[in-house]
Amino acid sequence: MSNSETRIPVDTIRGSRRVRHQLKGRQPDDAACEAVRALVGPGPHARELLIEHLHRLNDAQGALFEGMLVALAAEMGLSMAEVVEVASFYHHFQILPDGAEAPAVTLRVCDGLACAMAGAAGLMQTLHGALDAGVRLTHAPCVGRCEQAPVAVLGQRPVPRATADEVRRCLAVGEHHHPLPANSHGRFDPVEHALGEVGEGAAAIAPTCVGYAAYRAAGGYQLAAEIVNSERSADEVLAALEHSGLRGLGGAGFPAGRKWRIVRGYDAPRWMAVNIDEGEPGTFKDRTYLERDPHRLLEGVLIAAQVVGTEAVVLYLRDEYAGCRALLERELTLLQAEPPCPLPRIELRRGAGAYICGEESAMIESIEGKRGEPRLRPPYIAEKGLFGRPTLEHNFETLYWVRDIVERGPQWFTAFGRRGRQGLRSFSVSGRVNRPGVKLAPAGITLRELIDEYCGGMADGHELYAYLPGGASGGILPASLADVPLDFDTLQPHGCFIGSAAVIVLSRHDKARDAALNAMRFFADESCGQCTPCRVGTEKAAQLMQAAAWDHGTLDDLSAVMVDASICGLGQAAPNVISCVQRYFAHEVQG
Question: Which of 27, 406, 408, 475 is the most buried (most CB within 10 A)?
Fold first, then answer.
């Protein structure tokens, strides 16, 4: 040390430190805390209720203001970073600085494939500049009403077959909320629709549903009560499911009976999660059944909960289905007030606009109040799911058929089918057909038969050109393959899969490359961003697919990386549309 340097004692340095009188970061003010408590109730608050609380703030104020988020973080004992990272993940939350003006209402125009084919871009262009300043206009991914294309959603009210005039009329009269359907005193037997259409097609947004009293009067919940009261054995139920061949009807197709046995083999406590987040473009079957017959699902839930031994059930419903949410809240209240048998704890949770939450582990993350990012596996959620416990996860429609299969016998279900296939399949059909809608048809039916027998043929002036057999992720096939059976495992040799049976029909007025680009833009927008192959690959692919002549080498490389290295099915299935266009519609993308 040179003579010019001065050594300062350590104690002097310590003593000179500024004493911190408050915590780091922005602190909540009293008024914001009082406002938050008024909306979410007094604490303590469970961590998993974060998204539910964000919805309450967003619904009340039209947006999420930063000061309120600070107060919510303090009320829940979370960091501001935790709250903001969740709120910013979901499409249906809008974060605004304090003092900004929230929109009076948000108008979303669906740009999914069916709506795009029906003129959504023109509708969006017409509405730009034609609405009041307080209306926030934005595009939306598929909202699950493809049979009513093009669709706009004003606040929480769907506007089917939307026109600019109809949107302006709804705005003028303040129709921002989804009407609650009236209860029917009759019955809804889905089997009666086995040779026809389920529901009213493109007409209704609040169809009459079978309420609790009517469902009970028609014999509903008798089977569930027998199983809960040990008048019918769990082994009998499991045998019926296994002999029926019932498989997961949300896309994966895993045998239902086998899944029940796996989960019940793990130590209690066990949970159950019901996936009603059908966000696959082209899919609307779950909504169609739920709007008309909610208790058939709930009875399936009770049966599964008893057989598997789950202590609690969470119903995860996509936020786009506001009418279904109000309906389920009403019917669950009636069920719990006058139960037919002892019930497990049943909770209804609300999604917030994220397609990725249809993936089972991402849904579980969302239920736990987190960003909807898929988990690495193993462990699988059957072993370690909700809150780290064994979890039975099912799609809506899989549980919907449980009562009928057990009550009528597995041979009833297997008696349906064509070409050696067995069972019933619910097809969501949209696009260039005369009568789009949900069609309950025998397994093994072909697209040509589905169009001719169930949809009234192709729309006037249209000739079949191509079709998507399993929504945006299921690939695209040409009209020359319209006689392939539509079922599990029949489409894989052709580079496609049935998935959730979302069938979108294209005519010679359309191009397969446009449909593929629409799908890839959807995947790029909906990627959770957790893994680089999916986050970067979908965006880069969408850019390359806009070229008149495709760069096949680069697209092939991107596809291989996405398939091999993506964490979940979004990135793994996104390249299906690329490979199908290259294989069947090469003339559209050659220079």
Answer: 475
Which pLDDT band holds residue 507 (cuts at 50, 70, 90)? very high
Q: In what order do the strands lie in the sheet with 270-276?
A: 345-350, 310-317, 270-276, 391-395
Q: What residue has token string 């979410």? A: 40
- Euclidean distance between CA atoms 372 and 47, whole angstroms: 15
What is the model's pTM?
A: 0.94
- Measure the CA–CA gap between 328 and 348, rounded to whole angstroms: 8
Judged against a pLDDT cut of 70, whether residue 9 lies above it is answered with no
> Which residues are bridge partners to 504 per DSSP?
430, 468
> Residues 165, 287, 357, 315: is their CA dihedral positive or negative?
positive
The total of other beta-carbon atoms located within 10 Å of residue 446's CB is: 19
- Which letter does DSSP use for residue 347 in this model? E
Q: Which two structure tokens, joined as six digits, stand for 145?
A: 């009403």
Distance CA 349, CA 274 (A): 10
C-alpha–C-alpha distance, residues 156 and 205, integer Å: 11
pLDDT in tens, 356-371: 999 999 999 999 999 9
Q: Are 372 and 528 in contact (CB under 8 A)?
A: yes
**Which pLDDT belongs to residue 189?**
82
- Element (H or E) spanning 489, and its range? none
The secondary element (H helix, E strand) that includes residue 67 is: helix 66-76
DSSP β-bridge partners for residue 209: 183
Half-sphere exposure of 489 (CA within 13 A, CB side): 6
> Looking at residue 19, what is its pLDDT?
47
Per residue in 40-73, pLDDT (tens digit) is 999 899 999 999 999 999 999 999 999 999 999 9
Q: Please provide the distance, in angstroms rounded to a whole number, between the alpha carbons at the two ends of the chain.
A: 74
CA distance 370 to 364: 9
| 16-30, 37-51, 93-107, 265-279, range with the lowest pLDDT | 16-30
Q: List Cα–Cα distances, 403 to 160, 226, 237, 286, in angstroms.
A: 32, 12, 10, 16
The whole-number average pLDDT for the span 138-151 is: 96
The answer, yes or no, to whether residue 23 has pLDDT greater than 70, is: no
Sequence-distant (≥ 6) Cβ neighbours of residue 252 within 8 angstroms:
none
Rounded to whole angstroms, the Cα distance separating 562 from 551 reads 17
64 forms bridges with which residues in the sheet? 95
Matching residue, tokens 């416990």 = 389
Q: What angle (nearest 5°) sits at the alpha carbon of residue 426, between those of residues 319 and 584? A: 95
Distance CA(325)–CA(290), nearest Å, equals 10
Per-residue pLDDT at 8? 59
Secondary structure of 505-552 in the HEC alphabet?
Answer: EEECCCCHHHHHHHHHHHHHHHCCCCCHHHHHHHHHHHHHCCCCCCCH
**Mean pLDDT, rounded, for 461-481:** 97
Collapsing DSSP to helix, strand or coil, 24 comes out as coil
> What's the pLDDT score for residue 192?
75
Cβ–Cβ under 8 Å, residues 224 and 341: yes
Number of Cβ within a 10 Å radius of residue 34: 11
Q: What are phi and psi of 549, to 5 degrees?
A: -115, 125
Average pLDDT score over the chain: 93
What's the rounded Cα separation, in Å, for the pair 452 and 465?
A: 15
User: What length is written for the chain?
Assistant: 591
Specify the residue for token string 């004493």: 19
